[in-house]
Amino acid sequence: MSRTVITYGVFDQFHEGHRRLLERARALGDVLIVGVTTEEFAQERGKYTTADSLEERMENVRKTGLADQVIVEYAYGQKREDIRKYHADVFAAGSDWTGKFDELRDLCEVVYLERTPGISSSDIRNRKYPEVKLGLVGNGRIAPRFMREAAFIKGLTISGVYNPHTESAERFAQMHNIRAYAEYEEMLETCDAVYVCTPHETHGEYVRKALQAGRHVLCEKPMVLSGREAQELYALAKTQDVILMEAMKTAYTPGFRKLLEVVHSGVIGEVCDIDASFTRLTDPSLREWRGPCGGSFAEVGSYVLLPVIKLYGTEFDEIRSWSVRNEEGKDSYTKMILRKGERSATVRTGLGVKTEGQLILSGTKGYILAEAPWWKSGKFEIRREDPEDRTAFAIPYHGDGMRYEIGEFMNMIEGHKRKESLFSPAESICMAIIMERFFSRHD
Ligand code: C2G
Is the pTM value of this prediction over 0.70? Predict the structure, then answer.
């Protein structure tokens, strides 16, 4: 009787420790099955960055010639199912997991193999890509959240903060034990990347200067409010060979990625209508209402436009909008309709009007309903003609969700794993064009 051994891992930046583990696992039996963890499941377990894609990692395992079969590991509970499915006699894992898989002992033998000392994917990563030092531009309400979330990303250090209001920057710096810079140029000299989270209308200048200095940039949404400026900035990033990424938080989360995957699988047929709302009653004294681009559309329009751009593309045949405005002319509520051929979308944003905040994607075979706060929950449901026939998804969403975009920013800086980020320059430019239209015409 042949003995089947099964083992799992991320196998990022495949190294000697991985190879030795596979060799010893193989020696425990006659057949070796290796599960390679998806990026999403690795994130679910707290690994937010992987340098190699799933395909590369599977290929590296295959190339050792040690695995008889390479499978994909995508979820908790799968190990139990796989052990049954493949009739595995032995489950093997490195000694860093000692005790953690004992509950599988009712199904098979569980063996922990001594971990090879002195080598890990993180070490390799650190050697290949030394620590990325990131400076914060602005220290408003989002900055402390960014600090908390960035702590989950290996290889990233927040080194300083710049704010033209030096006292405010100094207070923030002291609280977070980082350095405050009185001059933006000075901070640019000492960091590798910046995160721009200043008032919307100031983003463009900060981004441009950082790119000119050869620094990577993660910029809060909406990055800029002009299509041409967005185009120029992405072109500049390309010539400078640095990463420019719009911090379109939802686009990078596993839940939203899964939602798109489900739509692309065809289960709801062709999407013909999109309905996306995000309204948040906001105190009139707050920043959201102020400045040349205050109001609800600039504040939360990016969120509702995201699914529309992702599913319909970056060209539209018609865009119309209607707004309710306050005395200063800022929109407290906006409804926009976008048409692409026969397909349409309605998006709603509010700071002074409250609506239901759902996302509905209506297709020829069914629809997807994601209730508020769909932009940060990872929860959605496929519904069909028969009201009983529903499929619910609840994809994990860790912390404040910013760690996914920061992880992706690091992936882009370090590995250039994907040619384009999960929210591409073309999509970001389209967002800027729609914002520009909104601000230049008050239909
Ligand atoms: N490993 C090792 N020696 C090292 C590094 C890793 O023996 N120096 C082992 C790990 O213990 C693990 C396997 O190689 O068994 C893959 O390691 P990772 O890619 O880091 O994956 P990990 O997050 O440990 O996931 O069920 C086990 C998990 O899915 C493994």
Answer: yes
Of all atoms in ligand 1, which is nearest to the CA of residue 42? Answer: 23
For the chain, list the domains and their CATH numbers.
Answer: 4-119 (3.40.50.620), 129-248 (3.40.50.720), 254-396 (3.30.360.10)
Nearest CA to ligand 1 atom 21: 9
Question: Ligand 1 centroid vs 372 CA: distance in angstroms?
Answer: 38
pLDDT tens, position by position, 348-383: 999 999 999 999 999 999 999 999 999 999 999 999
DSSP string, 182-207: S-HHHHHHH-SEEEE-S-GGGHHHHH
**Cα(37)–Cα(335) distance, integer angstroms:** 42
**Pairing of β 193-196 and β 318-325:** unpaired
| Number of residues assigned to the chain | 443
Closest CA to 6 of 63, 58, 67, 54: 67
Substitution candidate for ligand 1 out of 5, 18, 78 with most atoms within 8 A of CB: 18
In ligand 1, which atom is closest to the CA atom of 20?
A: 7
- How many Å lie between the centroid of ligand 1 and the Cα of residue 22? 10
pLDDT in tens, 181-194: 999 999 999 999 99
CA-nearest residue for atom 28, ligand 1, is: 9
